């Protein structure tokens, strides 16, 4: 595939371009060239035509979308203390199946077996193109290597090689908070929003900042590490959001503590949307409005993620499809 074809496919899949004219505008190329690029993608069955759009005075545009049949990728979120969440994602970014499974946190064999069971359940008799893993870890954006993690398991040199022995598929790893942000940016609670922050809660807590239509990674791929942020009484954000602490303190005190911590973030990052992902879904539908009411900045909207506990798994699988396209490992 040419560079134009790769970029056009990614834009169409992300629904940033929905017509040939959009492709031309986004890529900065002529309309005839954009038409040739789209015809090539249609011939490769990567995209498909899906009806007519609204005319703006000229020819009525033909709409385009990613073909759902191109990929079957399994995304697994390893970020919870004793539970894995997994999804089967098609080429258009749709979740076609989702599963959860419990594992024993201190038993490495239990973790591998849990992942294996999820893959078997989701795969069935389908052709699987890859497995994407969302980890609570700092991941080098270029090498895709684990640089640091609160979970020592992920830093173990045998962790990924052992998984590769279990699964006869390409593997892709990503940071779970950033994966959740990608998931919510394309088809989720932050769809078509240029600037937002996402806070993801699992075993630990992490953040991701979406700036000017893309992830902000920082110099060492560690932007968004907010777990050591402290509120006025000295409590770390990670400790405030721990299961043990939530069970111990009142809901009002918990909401107030969260609001205080997030006010610190909103004071630094000028955004209008805050998305709560992962285990935040367990706090009920009223949690986001309660938190929003406590924030000092009245311009900030707080939303629960669309994909809840499955957001990071979907985001990791979503990224892997584009990774395969870029690296010519697709069909």
Highlighted features:
331 residues, alpha/beta, Arc Repressor Mutant, subunit A, Nucleotidyltransferase, domain 5, 5-stranded mixed sheet, 37% helix, globular
Topology:
Blueprint: H1 3-13, H2 20-27, H3 31-43, E1 47-52, E2 62-66, E3 72-77, E4 83-90, E5 95-102, H4 108-123, E6 130-135, E7 137-139, E8 146-149, H5 152-155, H6 159-166, E9 171-175, H7 176-185, E10 196-201, E11 205-211, E12 214-215, H8 237-240, H9 243-248, H10 251-268, E13 273-278, H11 287-294, E14 301-304, H12 311-326
Parallel strand pairs: 3-6, 6-9, 10-13, 13-14
Antiparallel strand pairs: 1-2, 3-4, 4-5, 7-8, 10-11, 11-12
Concise structural overview:
The chain is of the alpha/beta class and 331 residues long. It has helices at residues 3-13, 20-27, 31-43, 108-123, 152-155, 159-166, 176-185, 237-240, 243-248, 251-268, 287-294, 311-326, and strands at 47-52, 62-66, 72-77, 83-90, 95-102, 130-135, 137-139, 146-149, 171-175, 196-201, 205-211, 214-215, 273-278, 301-304. The protein folds into 3 domains: 3-66, Arc Repressor Mutant, subunit A, CATH 1.10.10.10; 72-178 and 311-326, ATPase, nucleotide binding domain (Nucleotidyltransferase, domain 5, 2-Layer Sandwich); 190-309, Nucleotidyltransferase, domain 5, CATH 3.30.420.
**Strand element count:** 14
The biggest beta sheet reads: 5 strands, mixed
Secondary structure class reads alpha/beta
Global mean pLDDT: 91
What number of structural domains do the residues give? Answer: 3
Radius of gyration: 21 Å
Q: Flag low-confidence runs.
A: none
According to CATH, what is the topology of the largest domain?
Nucleotidyltransferase, domain 5
- % residues in beta strands: 15-25%
Compute the separation of the termini in Å. Answer: 11 Å
């Amino acid at each position: 595939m040419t560079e134009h074809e790769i970029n056009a496919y990614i834009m169409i899949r992300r629904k940033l371009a929905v017509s040939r004219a959009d492709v031309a505008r986004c890529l900065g190329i002529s309309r005839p060239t954009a038409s040739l690029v789209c015809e090539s993608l249609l011939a490769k069955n990567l995209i498909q035509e899906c009806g007519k759009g609204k005319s703006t005075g000229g020819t009525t545009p033909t709409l385009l979308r990613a073909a759902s049949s191109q990929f079957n990728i399994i995304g697994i979120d390893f970020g919870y203390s004793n539970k894995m969440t997994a999804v089967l994602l098609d080429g258009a970014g749709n979740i076609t199946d989702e599963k959860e499974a419990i594992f024993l946190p201190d038993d490495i064999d239990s973790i591998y077996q849990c992942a294996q069971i999820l893959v078997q359940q989701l795969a069935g008799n389908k052709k699987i193109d890859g497995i994407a893993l969302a980890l609570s870890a700092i991941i080098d954006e270029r090498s895709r290597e684990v640089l640091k993690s609160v979970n020592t398991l992920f830093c173990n040199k045998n962790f990924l090689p052992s998984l590769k022995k279990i699964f006869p598929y390409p593997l892709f790893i990503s940071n779970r908070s950033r994966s959740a942000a990608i998931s919510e940016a394309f088809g989720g609670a932050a769809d078509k929003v240029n600037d937002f922050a996402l806070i993801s809660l699992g075993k630990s807590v992490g953040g991701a900042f979406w700036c000017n239509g893309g992830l902000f990674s920082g110099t060492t791929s560690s932007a968004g590490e907010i777990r050591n942020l402290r509120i006025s009484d000295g409590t770390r954000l990670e400790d405030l959001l721990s299961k043990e602490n939530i069970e111990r303190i009142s809901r009002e005190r918990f909401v107030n503590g969260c609001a205080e911590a997030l006010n610190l973030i909103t004071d630094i990052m000028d955004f209008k949307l805050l998305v709560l992902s992962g285990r935040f879904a367990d706090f009920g539908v009223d949690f986001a409005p309660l938190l929003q009411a406590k924030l000092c900045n009245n311009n900030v909207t707080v939303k629960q993620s669309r994909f809840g506990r499955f957001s990071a798994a979907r985001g990791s699988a979503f990224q892997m499809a584009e990774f395969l396209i870029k690296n010519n490992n697709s069909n």
